[in-house]
Amino acid sequence: MALKNNFLDVFLSFNLWKYISNKRKRQLGFLSILIIISGISEIFTLTSIAPFLEILANPQSKIENNILRNIYDLQFSFLSLDKLTFMLIVFLLFLTLSALIRLLILYLNDFISALIGNELGVKTFSSFLYRPYEFHLENNTSKMISLIVTKIDSAIDSIRSIINIICSAIILISIFTTLIGINIFITTATLASILLFYLLLALILRKRLGVISKKRSFLIRSQTQSIQEGLGFIRDIIIDNCQNYFLKIFTFNDRSLRIIDARSYFIAGSPKYILEVLGIIFLLVTSILYKENIGNELSIIPLLGSIAFGMQRILPVIQQIYSSFVILSTNKDSILDLVEILKHTGKSQEFINASSRKILKFEEEISLEKISFKYSNNPKYIIENLNLNIKKGSVLGIIGKSGSGKSTLIDIIMGLIKPQKGSVKVDGVELLFGENGNTKQWFPRISHVPQEIFISDNSIQENIAFGINKDSIDNAQLLKAIKNSQLDSLIRNTKYGLNMYVGERGALLSGGQKQRIGFARALYKGGDLLILDEFTSALDVKTEESLIETIKNLKRQVTIIIVSHKKSLLGFCDEIIELESNC
Length: 583
Description:
Layout: H1 7-12, H2 22-57, H3 66-76, H4 83-129, H5 133-138, H6 141-182, H7 184-232, H8 234-240, H9 243-294, H10 297-330, H11 332-342, H12 345-348, E1 365-373, E2 383-391, E3 395-400, H13 406-414, E4 421-426, E5 429-430, E6 446-449, H14 460-464, H15 475-484, H16 488-492, H17 511-525, E7 529-533, H18 541-554, E8 559-563, E9 575-579
Parallel strand pairs: 3-8, 3-9, 6-7, 7-8
Antiparallel strand pairs: 1-2, 1-4, 4-5
Helix pairs in contact: 2-4, 2-6, 2-10, 4-6, 6-7, 6-10, 6-11, 7-9, 7-10, 9-10, 15-17
């Protein structure tokens, strides 16, 4: 991985910060101001408890603080509160104010972190959607899903933890500064012991947390993959009665992930209970030693009470810092994976406004010159030194055995994958691949019917007018596409017509109906180049013949490329090429 294997480097070098919007940054700035105010409120709270406890122990004692004494004298003329009641009210007011500010910080922390998580999720999904087709051929979808769904949650937890560390550090400094003013010896000795305990614990667990982070990142991806495969192959799983096989895989991954999370939570939370006991013991011992030195029993009560109250406020703060450190450590590899993907967000955005750019001119021919292509996992070229000219308005047939490169050739013509050698030209203009290329200007010219038709869990009309808002669908063009693809009988025979929902991946449709929806989708889009890849494999003879007639009627209106195993389908083609397998 290009980034250093150190989580702090990710944030200190603003690798994640730069993907956060300016609006969220301003909100985080406001949150920082609240955190500082919270620290100041802690100072006032601790400052007010010492005189309260002193008056409680000795009612004859005076209010030493000048500001509090002036306020007390001012209120005496119309409220007539005694010193103890006055100091109790002051203490409770500061305590309540401090609690309300920290409650507001907690709410804003969670709220802003959630919104940042949403932004990062959208940017990550956008990065995947706008990546070149070759990226998707080489990467597992389960990895992408785990990044978007689960690892974004890790990012939210980590951002929340960073804010918690900053907030807790400011509050810790505020409380520590105030307690030093009360008694420097007890405060320094107690706090130093607590910090040393957590520091040693963090150093001891550092390597273990690193291992947990790597395992957690791997198991998140494995868990997603086991779910995806188990549900994606459900028909074969039921037929082959192999549910237990996939269940065992999921059980192992899910159990391992949850055990790792349980260990992380234990490591994060367990020191609190140990330190509560040790802290009280240490505070009592140091207080006894201090009492023996000064020999004044009355003065030790407000002192001990103030220090105890301060430490009661400090312990959760230090525990918060430590548990946040554990969360950051266990999420480190997930965050690094996320940042690695977000690095490409800016590049992928180059594809966003493709529809608003100039469409590539196509009036004469598509030419392939000395094209050679091989996949990264295969040393042999699947297509080698191929030359081909496709005239505008012609019909080209492509046949060949399985694995001969028919679909690969189609992907090259469409500009989805880049050949290692040679060039593809449209009217003499070479297709340029990559972020600054012109392939996105070529895509609007193409209508494609693939071998496997993707069907979304939406209505028939939304599946035909794919990727178009329902309110923006051209009904006349939609009905024409339905008629030419022989789908009109299906529409008539369903209760809901065009609004019939087809189920996940078209579960409520037959294979032939899915293919006809794919064909209707291509016809609805229009375009100058119609590519049909084994589009009749699931059709009955009568429907196949009818669709072939529709295609014949499109001849000369658009350029057509047909990929098929059946030579009988290619009789009306102007040219037929046969690809031979190089495997």
